[in-house]
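Researcher: I'm preparing a figure for a lab meeting and need a structural model of a single chain. I don't have an experimental structure, so a prediction will have to do for now. The sequence is pasted below. Please return the structure as tokens so I can convert it later.
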Amino acid sequence: MPTEVILPKVDMDMATGQISRWFAGEGARVKKGDVLFEIETDKAAMEIDAPASGTLRNVTGRERVDIPVGEPVAWIYADDEVYAAETAQNKAPISPQVGEMSAKPTEGGAVPPTFQSVTPALPGISPPRGEISRSPGPARATPLARRLAREANLDLSAIVGSGPRGRVVRADVEAAVTAKGSPTLEQPTADMASPVPAEAPPAPAAPKPMSDDQVLKLFAEGSYELVPHDNMRKTIARRLVEAKSTIPHFYLTLDCELDALLALRTQLNAAAPVKKTDKGEVPAYKLSVNDMVIKAFAVALMAVPDANASWTDSAMVKHKHADVGVAVSIPGGLITPIIRHADEKTLSTISNEMKDLASRARSRKLKPEEYQGGTTAVSNLGMFGIKDFAAVINPPHATILAIGAGEQRAVVKNGEIKIANVMSVTLSTDHRAVDGALGAELLGAFKRMIENPMGMLV
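Model: Understood. Here is the structure written out token by token.
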């Protein structure tokens, strides 16, 4: 039977993806392992290989269109399989609203899924018996839709779903209730409603963000340009709202003197061995302040292991290594590639690995395992002259360290005013996992490592 080619899930947060380009077209001969298409998620662009050898048929996945994860985008027919031409309707890359979808190719015909047109019906109600055939088995529906249908005493299999792959969603059940003439869901009738004391004040309404129309009415028509959100910006917005609304952020700030670190950095870079490349001889590494910050924070986390944790409702997750994510600005947003086991790596290894990750992040060529997970993160805006700031924690992390610019400041030492290079750092913690005292201990360990950087070499 032909092999189904689906849009794969390459990110744990991924619900939809876009095909940025196809490398093979309808009727093309492909071999297993050949690159079929490039998929673009909110964080990276990845090449997807052919799962089998044969002829590519029914290429329904269009470029630059949101496609649900798991949706078929093409089929591959082996040499001994007969291709059954599909109708124009079957080639349209949409999820069926009504009709029958075969979950797998039939053993006899071995053809891709086809959808059967039916007579239009009332909203949310299936056509009369005999006008539509359905696959045996339970109807596809969301858990909420199942509960609402059960409460309304509705036959779920008689409701036509409007969700992906014909899945029944809440709106479908509510439409079915309206068409049936039943009371509106989640609004109990008078005899079912619990009595409410007359003196009870009404519950305050949850704050709602301004609608698009409300925002646009504040500006003169023609004075702006609307730029639709891409998947990356939508995901960033969703995760930031999630982080700020579910994580109790707590902030700690202190200053670190950099003179000893800058001197060691200069000394180590001067001692870097030379290697031959296509561009000639270049140093084997070139340390940055950020490379040393990553190492110092990783060592500090191992010195204060209780702070190297993640919060879950049932238990505290204590990490055995420091996997440090580093915020990298890319066109349209940011991404956080991870230096795994940073506590065990040398400064030169961290430096070279960070340069490679940052380069591939900007071209959106990172693999999911290179930016998913991690135990903490570092965000550095010092290169922009920012003195200090507070970063938003990236779940499931419990900490993130915000690095400000190093600058010369007057400091008092032994009763005398001296000039020193100083940078301000702010630690954001999830107060459920890392409270104030523990966060202060972690930040103190980081400060000691920055001001006594020889500890990074042992």
